[in-house]
Design goal:
Rossmann fold, 8-stranded mixed beta sheet, 18 helices
């Protein structure tokens, strides 16, 4: 690990840390508010084996300088800071960007501007939309109102109460200085930084310098790089529609809903790191994982889903496998005596077939582990054999944190097993 200082265009010094493989693709992680770069510790750990990982404290946070005045925190300046960091750590070629919260807001501004034109290979965004996109989104909800759009707009407005509160002079500043606001945030969001690691005071200027200016006068800002949005389903500040309804501005877009809260970067860093690594791999090599193909906004509801069907050698199991294949899913089939004939019928959508005794719970669990090792975590499991072992798949789906479905045609005994798994918090 190495450290360096990068001087921004207005003289502000930014604290930059570089870790990981010196010959790997360069990934720059941009934190949000009220965090500093330490927020990325878990995600960075998941990337350093194959990537050159760069983190930096944005102005006003961590070890970086903390200028006073709103003008120092305008989006144009923040985007220029990111450009300065990129040029310092990667003088030539392209970098990959991963950003969260206000880090995402400023990164959207950077990749849709001119400062980093041609320098960004991919962008993974969490919990932070472009303010221009957000302003246009709000206008669309109100100009062409439907019950759903009005509900989305109202829901986001209620989630954004703190933006108005931060415009009030003196009081928010005092609450940060005394530590009361940091403690309150952690009480509401256990995954947020502890008060002693929060950098909320100077970052208040982010809201005061940018929010109403950008939201009230949004400009069209298209992105011309591969983008994936990781949208935490339980985000208390940025709703899923605001994060994900950006198709009109992004030509190469993927949407992945992550089961988690606003600070999923802390609670599930391995999930964030794995998703970012998949987009980086695609941008570097052109090899697109099934998860990325599934997340394309133009993909059908079952297209590129990985589906496991047991009891698939005949009858309902075979018909189910064929129905999924017709919808573009990739299907794994299994039965007590194998399902080779069904696999042939699936043609290009047949992934593999297995022989597994569904009455043997341990055998089914080994089967589930083998599926994960050889093909990845399935999106849908249809257990037509319906006896044992669904819990293994449920656990995998919960760990992946991108949802999924388990459908069981079974006796009451199997239902009890599934309910026991649900009681342990394993329901996808």
């Amino acid at each position: 690990m190495s450290h360096q200082w990068v001087t921004a265009s207005d003289g502000v010094r930014l604290s930059v840390t570089i870790d990981g493989r010196s010959d790997g693709p360069t990934v720059v992680l941009v934190h949000g508010y009220p965090d500093n770069s330490s927020m990325w510790a878990g995600v960075a750990a998941g990337l350093t084996a194959k990537h050159r990982v760069v983190t930096y404290d944005v102005r006003g946070a961590g070890r970086s300088d903390k200028p006073s005045g709103r003008a120092s925190y305008r989006l144009d300046q923040l985007a220029d800071d990111l450009r300065a960091v990129v040029e310092a750590v990667q003088p030539a070629g392209q970098v990959h960007l991963v950003a969260h919260d206000w880090g995402s807001i400023q990164t959207w501004h950077a990749i849709t501007g001119e400062g980093l034109r041609g320098r960004v290979a991919s962008y993974t965004s969490l919990s932070g939309p472009s303010l221009d996109h957000a302003g246009a989104w709000f206008r669309a909800q109100l100009r062409r109102p439907t019950p759903k759009r009005l509900k989305n707009a109202l829901n986001q407005f209620l989630h954004s109460w703190y933006i108005l509160a931060f415009q009030v002079p003196v009081i928010p500043d005092l609450l940060w200085r005394t530590g009361l606001l940091g403690k309150q945030i952690q009480r509401m969001e256990p995954d947020a930084a502890p008060p002693e690691k929060s950098d909320g005071l100077h970052g208040l200027q982010l809201y005061r310098a940018n929010m109403f200016t950008r939201l009230s006068r949004p400009a069209p800002r298209p992105a011309d790089v591969p983008v994936q949005v990781l949208a935490p389903t339980g985000d208390a500040y940025v709703t899923t529609p605001l994060q994900t309804e950006v198709t009109r501005w992004v030509s190469d877009l993927r949407i992945r809903r992550i089961v988690g809260t606003h600070w999923v970067t802390r609670s599930k860093p391995q999930v964030v790191a794995a998703a970012a690594a998949e987009l980086i791999e695609y941008a570097e090599t052109g090899v697109e994982s099934r998860a990325l193909r599934r997340a394309r906004v133009d993909a059908g509801p079952f297209e590129h889903r990985l589906v496991v069907v047991t009891g698939a050698s005949s009858g309902i199991g075979r018909a189910t496998a064929l129905a999924f294949a017709e919808q573009g899913a990739d299907v794994i089939v299994a039965d007590t005596s194998g399902a080779a004939e069904t696999l042939k019928l699936l043609e290009e959508h047949g992934v593999a077939e297995y022989t597994v005794d569904s009455s043997d719970g341990e055998a089914v669990r080994r089967f589930a582990e083998r599926v994960r090792a050889e093909h990845g975590v399935p999106d849908i499991v249809v257990d037509d054999a319906g006896r044992h072992g669904e819990g293994a798949f449920v656990l995998m789906l919960a760990e992946r944190a991108e949802g999924g479905q388990v459908v069981t045609l079974a006796s009451a005994a199997v239902l009890r097993e599934i309910l026991r798994a649900a009681e342990k918090g394993l329901t996808p």
